[in-house]
């Protein structure tokens, strides 16, 4: 049980429930193959049944960590920072991103967009979920739309979401990992017929890295 003082700092975004942080190669989407430092923030109530980091859902399992420490750790490794979760927008990202930006970092977010956008971002990867749709404000700001495809009906959902983003947003279809053998042929065929879309694969899993 955290103290009231700590809870207040978390509410202000001065401390955040840090699940893990690591330096690796970005495996998905536009920046795949790029070295980056990942900051995974705990807490998510979107509840995707195929989520591969369900241990991130309960924020209470992850210790509130001062953003000063998070920033210091990150910048030892890289100026390219990816903030993910969980759902990072559960929390106020203003303080963390401002601190990173003050140090010259390029800051990316991976988000479902289910909560109000806070923070300063150089790249927004929007990965919408049917269970809890994005807020309307984030669609025109997304640089990249990444839709996870678990079954063929997700392709219809992908088109519905693509209709809401800007014309400059890059569109990706990514097979859900546990069902990839069935979905990859479907996605490949769809992208060849609809070349405004691109295929995204979880290349970090093929490379056997975090």
TrEMBL record:
What are the alphabetically sorted keywords of the record?
Answer: 4Fe-4S, Iron, Iron-sulfur, Lyase, Magnesium, Metal-binding, Queuosine biosynthesis, S-adenosyl-L-methionine
Q: Name one Pfam family in it.
A: Radical_SAM
What is the E.C. number?
Answer: 4.3.99.3
Entries under SUPFAM superfamilies matching the protein: Radical SAM enzymes
Q: Could you say which residues bind substrate here?
A: 25-27, 40, 84, 210
Question: Pathway, per Swiss-Prot/TrEMBL?
Answer: Purine metabolism; 7-cyano-7-deazaguanine biosynthesis
- The reaction(s) this protein catalyses: 6-carboxy-5,6,7,8-tetrahydropterin + H(+) = 7-carboxy-7-carbaguanine + NH4(+)
Ranges for domain Radical SAM core: 31-210
Can you tell me which residues bind S-adenosyl-L-methionine?
Answer: 50-52, 86, 127-129
Q: Which cofactor does it need?
A: Mg(2+); S-adenosyl-L-methionine; [4Fe-4S] cluster
Q: How is the cofactor bound?
A: Binds 1 S-adenosyl-L-methionine per subunit.
Residues annotated to bind [4Fe-4S] cluster: 44, 48, 51
Q: Which Gene3D superfamilies match?
A: Aldolase class I (3.20.20.70)
Entry function: Catalyzes the complex heterocyclic radical-mediated conversion of 6-carboxy-5,6,7,8-tetrahydropterin (CPH4) to 7-carboxy-7-deazaguanine (CDG), a step common to the biosynthetic pathways of all 7-deazapurine-containing compounds.
Subunit structure of this entry? Homodimer.
Similarity-based family: Belongs to the radical SAM superfamily. 7-carboxy-7-deazaguanine synthase family.
Q: Which PANTHER family match?
A: 7-CARBOXY-7-DEAZAGUANINE SYNTHASE
Q: What name goes with this protein?
A: 7-carboxy-7-deazaguanine synthase
Q: Name the species this protein comes from.
A: Christiangramia antarctica
Task: Please name the taxonomic classification of the source.
Answer: Bacteria, Pseudomonadati, Bacteroidota, Flavobacteriia, Flavobacteriales
């Amino acid at each position: 049980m955290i103290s009231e003082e700590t809870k207040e700092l978390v509410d202000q975004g001065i401390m955040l429930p840090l699940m893990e942080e690591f330096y690796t190669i970005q495996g998905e989407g536009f920046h795949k193959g790029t070295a980056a430092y990942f900051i995974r923030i705990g807490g998510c109530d979107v509840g995707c049944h195929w989520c591969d980091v369900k241990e991130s859902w309960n924020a209470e399992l992850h210790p509130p960590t001062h953003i000063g420490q998070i920033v210091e750790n990150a910048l030892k490794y890289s100026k390219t920072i990816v903030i993910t979760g969980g759902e990072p927008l559960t929390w106020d990202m203003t303080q963390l991103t401002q601190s990173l930006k003050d140090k010259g970092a390029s800051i990316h977010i991976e988000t479902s967009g289910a909560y109000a956008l806070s923070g300063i971002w150089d790249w927004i990867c929007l990965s919408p979920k049917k269970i809890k749709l994005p807020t309307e404000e984030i669609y025109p700001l997304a640089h990249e739309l990444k839709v996870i495809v678990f079954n063929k009906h997700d392709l219809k959902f992908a088109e519905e979401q693509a209709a809401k983003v800007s014309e400059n947003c890059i569109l990706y279809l990514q097979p859900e990992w546990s069902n990839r053998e069935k979905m990859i042929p479907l996605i490949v065929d769809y992208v060849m017929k609809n070349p405004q879309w691109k295929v995204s694969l979880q290349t970090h899993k093929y490379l056997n890295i975090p």
